[in-house]
Design brief:
Length: 308
Amino acid sequence: MRHPDMRHPDMPRTPTRGIALVIVLWTVTLLAVIAGSFTMITGTETKLIRNRIANAEAQALAEAGVYRAVLAMLGPNSEDRWRPDGRVYAFSFGGGEVRISIQDESGKIDLNRGADAFLAGLFATAGLDERDSLALVDAIADFRDRDRFHRLQGAEDDDYFAAGLSYGAKDGPFVAVEELHQVMGMTAELYRRVAPFLTVYSSRSSVDPMVAPAEVLLAVPGIVPEQVDYLLALRAVAGEMGGVEAWLPLTSVEGYFSPLKPDRPIYTVRAEAHTGDGAVFVREAVVQIDRNKPQPFGFEAWRQGDRQ
């Protein structure tokens, strides 16, 4: 006699077996998804770690480039020193490459001392029309002077507040070029164009024509492009030639050029590093050189730069 719970092999299967099979399939699928997700996460983390290592290498390489530039400026032989006129020096190290430029701050227009016409000329070369250039010069003057009197097209505290800004004019000298962002009329794009040619470190109204960038030379009132070409060509062959005799043909720019070197020269060093993995880092440093001191150099600023 057959037991009541026993079934013949040809009898249909119960739903319980089907449900168990579905559960097993879903479990296997879930485990596969978890394993795939874990693999993907692990791969992503590995890439992030590699990127961080590459970025750290690029940063270290760029900072090494800054110190390499300082060493090149402190060399005992003046003829072998790197020139601080913006030209690019490149060297390879550790599987990467560094491109370094040095710009003497005395070749830039001083935000606190530069003549109005000089600043207006720079803004004009950056694309502003004459009216907007003069208005921005007035706004800069009102921003830094200590009085509350408006220049013709300037801006004092009430103008800033009326524009919805929470701050007014600084009423003091610029201590960093970055403060230009706060001046009414200054845009991010214009700042990007003119900031490399402005300084707060030269403390003089003129610039050194032996190291001034072409953009600064073109901003000199009364100068023409042909004269700038002449200066740059002469500078390329004259090296660190002293004296003003070479500049006598440019009588129209008298008062804007001064080749006299400051007692404590200050330079901006820009080092852009590229690693073999494609990482890029830019370090900018403002360094003061004084060969007569036991510590012959010191940093005025140390910041991350933008890739050009």
